[in-house]
Amino acid sequence: MAVFERLTRLKSTSRFLRYTTSLCPAHPCTATARIQQRRVHGGGSETPSAAPPRRPFSQVTPADLDFFTRLLPGRTITDPDVLESSNVDWLKSVKGSSEVLLRPKTTEEVSQILRYCNEWNLAVSPQGGNTGLVGGSVPVFDEIILSTALMNQVLTFDSISGILTCQAGCVLENLSQYLEERDFIMPLDLGAKGSCHIGGNVSTNAGGLRLLRYGSLRGTVLGLEVVLADGRVLDCLSTLRKDNTGYDLKQLFIGSEGTLGVVTAVSILCPRKPKSVNVAFLGCSSFENLLETFQICRGMLGEILSAFEFLDASCMSLLEEHLKLTNPITESPFYIVIETAGSTPAHDEEKLHNFLDTVMASALVIDGTVATEETKIKALWSMRERVTEALRHDGYTYKYDVSLPVEKIYDLVTDMRKRLGYRAKSVVGYGHVGDGNLHLNITSPMKDPALLAAIEPYVYEWTSGCQGSVSAEHGLGLKKRNYIYYSKSPEAVTLMGDIKAMLDPKGILNPYKTLPDSVR
Ligand SMILES: O=C(O)CC[C@@H](O)C(=O)O
Ligand SMILES: [Zn+2]
User: Pfam families from the entry (predicted)?
Assistant: First the structure.
């Protein structure tokens, strides 16, 4: 039995609490999941994420440029220096060769662009903040880049219902700031909030850090305005919470990564700004203890729990090494970030402290610190939010974003570590415990085909063997499109293809993305 000893419980003037117990030895997780091998479409010896051949779209001509320049004077960009950053994704792993970047300001302009492109068979790559991680937001070849960057206006905000309506290019952090000034918040928060656009968030059905509390965008998005491939504007920009008048068409565009239409405006239900927010950063000696802490946390914090996130010790090493962040607690095999958001500070703090007393008394948590002040909260959150950035400094990164039964999520990391051994530089696990969503990331000094062959399709077979999803929240984009069959039946994928063919018969919208190469 682990020896429990509380060493300190300090309360500083900054309301930064620190809890410490003696550090238990780590219990390395030895469980290896049973892998159910399954033959799937798209498997085999091909490299499924490689770009397919260019489809026979037209190439941009001087006459096309003339049309765009007249439609968008000063906002039709052909300068290669400006185009460079729009042609490459954030991870710098997918690079297109588009020669035109269009920056519409209005839905009508988007409609005219698409009508023209559809007529002349020109492919289009819609782009928001270009923060995606699956190569979904950049051209693969010479597709015209349609940026939402200048569609950045809030259209309406109803302070009684909390419903915000805005253009697709609003940056998530700007929306959060706009709402906070009005005592509301966005139901969505992500590490990329400073750059990502709400239209991109909706198009990828981004999950993020608050999904545990506020649910997915499939629930909080009330309406969408979408421009279809042929330029028709689909006005589903409802602000109703209840509307059962037939098919919920907006759901087709949420998570379809710009392959069915370009989202131009969004209405979204926003929660009230909580009056009290606390963040606890805790250390655990094993993933089993972390899961038990999660169970207790749900029971004891209940309605005020807004996030339960984790990172492992390898993530912490990368944060320290590459970003020079300082671990605020004793070194531990696992770290948890818990956020509470409620309306009565004293009540919330009491609940949180009762919870912390319980998990520390049972030695489930070996060390921890709590923040209630904004800058300290931000500092604690950055330990979780900046792991992706730290990984980018570590080398070439292989990224996996899987949904699994929560009790299995770390088995995949330990199994992969064992499988890859010294061949990988880092094998790390972090993610959204509350959502059963693991981010398994593996790095190597350089892109290494032999290492990749050891990871894939094994990681997808492992996931599908647990009835998991090969893309929990990042989408399929270019990189994961051919792995869709690990998580969806052939019938479902065929139906997706039928819907694509109906809405975009020429296939001009974000080609080579989401749908596997076997379905066009
Ligand atoms: O980089 C990743 O793998 C995850 C990014 C993001 O979804 C997160 O939760 O931090
Ligand atoms: Zn995530």
Answer: FAD-oxidase_C, FAD_binding_4
Are residue 160 and residue 263 in the same domain, yes or no?
A: yes
Would 242 be classed as within a structural domain?
yes
Buried/exposed code over 44-63 (b: 16+ C-beta within 10 A; e: otherwise): eeeebbeeeeebebeebeee
Q: Is 283 in the pocket of ligand 1 (CB under 6 A)?
A: no
Q: Measured from the CA of 209, which atom of ligand 1 is nearest?
A: 9
pLDDT along the chain (520 residues), means of 10: 27 31 28 29 46 95 98 98 97 96 98 99 98 98 98 98 98 98 98 98 97 98 98 97 96 98 98 98 98 98 97 98 98 98 96 98 98 97 98 97 97 98 98 97 96 98 98 98 98 98 98 94
Residue nearest to atom 7 of ligand 1 (CA): 208
Taking CA atoms only, the protein residue closest to ligand 1 atom 10 is: 385
Same-domain pairing of 370 and 399: no
> Model ipTM?
0.99
Distance separating alpha carbons of residues 318 and 394, to the nearest angstrom = 7
| Residue 474, CA distances (Å) to 306, 396, 411 in order | 21, 18, 21
Three-class secondary structure assignment of 14-33: CCEEEEEECCCCCCCCCCCC
Is 192 contained in some domain?
A: yes
In a shared domain, residues 344 and 368 = yes
Ligand 1 atom nearest the C-alpha of 391 is 1
Helix (H), strand (E), coil (C) string for 92-159: CCCECCCCCEECCCCHHHHHHHHHHHHHCCCCEEEECCCCCCCCCCCCCCCCEEEECCCCCCEEEEEC
